[in-house]
Amino acid sequence: ELEIRPVGKGTVRFFGWVLERDRPGVVLHNLGVTGAQAANVLPGHPGLIQQQLQRLDPTLVVLHVGTNDAFDRNLSAARYEKRFTALLKRLRPAPSPPDCLVVGAPDFSDKHWRKARRLRKQAAMIRRVQRKVAVASGCAFWDQYAAMGGRGAIKRFLRARPAWAYSDKVHLTSRGYRALGRLLTDALLAEYGAYVKARPRLKVRLQPPTRAQRREEAEARRQWPSGVTPVGIHDPSKRALHRFFRSLVLLQRRVKRARSRIVYLGDSHVAGDHLTGALRQRLQV
């Protein structure tokens, strides 16, 4: 039991607590804010936000926004680039900024064709800006839109049985989110595999899946909607995730008290913890 009592008088602000076991492992903090945009995904005092991030001391920050920004009729590429750049700076406070991964905006639509066409154009602009700013800021980028199958993916998700998306043509079912979480994990582990392969002195390697695991994976993917496909991490610098990868190396070496902390921030796609739950589960194995 955890009991908290205020002492004295005055305003009490409680931001939460962190409970961790005293053992090596991957810790993933999930923060999904319904309706979040690049301008308001982290509301509050900038100094307080930096304090909280420094207290958590993440190895990797993942940023997953863009859907709600597309509904802003007045949003231009220049304005979004300015907002997104400022947000990434807030997420990576000095003196030891964490690694950063930007998850691009997904495919989504609307019941009315005129609005759907406008949203499609805005979302395409947002993804272009997200990729550009991620690279300029020293972050990696994962193209969620391409992983879903590109244009029309949300319609194919709706037609799937069982369904992978809801009738609002924006949000996915737990089945859809978990599959995307699996693809994101595969992309990260593939990049990590390349990292350790290029450094044989580390003397670590990924454990290949068993035959039963490969068979189970193949069976699951046969039931996926058409177009869903693995997509790699975009990192022209080849250094955007090195701090995160070094933490995984320490975990593989079973270094005492080694930790790899991930802070995953986003909008309602993140709030349900289905996508992030799949990522957490697979990284903790």
Structural topology:
Blueprint: E1 25-32, H1 46-56, E2 60-64, H2 77-91, E3 99-103, H3 113-136, E4 140-142, H4 144-148, H5 153-159, H6 174-197, H7 211-222, E5 233-234, H8 242-252, E6 259-266, H9 268-271, H10 274-283
Parallel strand pairs: 1-6, 2-3, 2-6, 3-4
Antiparallel strand pairs: 4-5
* Low-confidence residue ranges: none
How far apart are the termini?
Answer: 28 Å
List the total number of helices. 10
In this structure, how is the largest beta sheet organized?
Answer: 6 strands, mixed
Order of helices and strands: EHEHEHEHHHHEHEHH
Strand content: 5-15%
Give a verbal description of the structure.
It is built from 10 helices and 6 strands; from the N terminus they run βαβαβαβααααβαβαα. Helices cover 43% and strands 11% of the residues. Helix 2 (77-91) packs across helix 3 and helix 6 (174-197) packs parallel to helix 10 (274-283). The chain has helices at residues 46-56, 77-91, 113-136, 144-148, 153-159, 174-197, 211-222, 242-252, 268-271, 274-283, and strands spanning 25-32, 60-64, 99-103, 140-142, 233-234, 259-266. The longest helix has 24 residues, at 113-136.
Summed up:
Helices cover 43% and strands 11% of the residues.
Could you list some keywords that capture this structure?
single chain, 6-stranded mixed sheet, alpha/beta, 43% helix, 285 residues, 6 strands
